[in-house]
Amino acid sequence: MSTELTRKVERTLEMVERVNRSLDEKGGAVAAQRRRERARVNRALGRRVAAIGVAVGVISILTIIVGLITPIGILGFLAAVGIAIGIAALLFFWPGDDATPTVPQDVPNGEMVQRFDSYLYKTRRALPAPAQTVVDGISAELGTLKATLERVDPLDPDAQDARRLMSVHLPGLIERYVNVPPAYRGEPDAEGLTVDQRLVEGLGAARSALGEVGERLAKRDMDAFQTQGRFIQSRYGEGGAPTL
Length: 244
What we know:
Elements: H1 2-26, H2 29-69, H3 73-93, H4 109-123, H5 129-149, H6 157-179, H7 195-236
Helix pairs in contact: 2-3, 2-5, 4-5, 4-6, 5-7, 6-7
């Protein structure tokens, strides 16, 4: 009887956890991620439509030029229309950079943060609930990091640390976790930690590292602002005569 009651309690807790997770995904950090991902998809679709328009325009102009030089007839016109439709379909259905979750290493700082945010959104469902919570926390802090990194040279040491975390180390951690068969993820290792726990620890360490990079970059901006303020105060404040 006690065992049956325990099982009922466990099933109830699992159901409550699923409901809470569903509610969390409808609002909060996950909803913000969904909006950002939808905006990225819309921008990519807009670029494809623009490319299709340019291609169709070029074919139309070439058809007109050829028609002015020599009559193309109805068959030539239909051939041009067929080519335009074929190119449009090819451009529309051609797999884009976002077909598979990746974070390329050869993009500017701001775009890398966007691609990293998209990568987290696309891979979070493959992670356990505690890891999803950490991932959502990372995504919630990427807006501030993006605004800071966009003003920094990609070769800056702090920017390099952030770029390696976003494009190599964190994706590598998640990909290696996904490769572990689910049946083995709950087995403790020599230190008594499971694969799921190791994942949460690694994600937490990466979140802390990204936060430290953001703090260092923000501190540099604050120092530069204070230096400029002291310079203006000493040069143009009371007792200081502006030099024309």
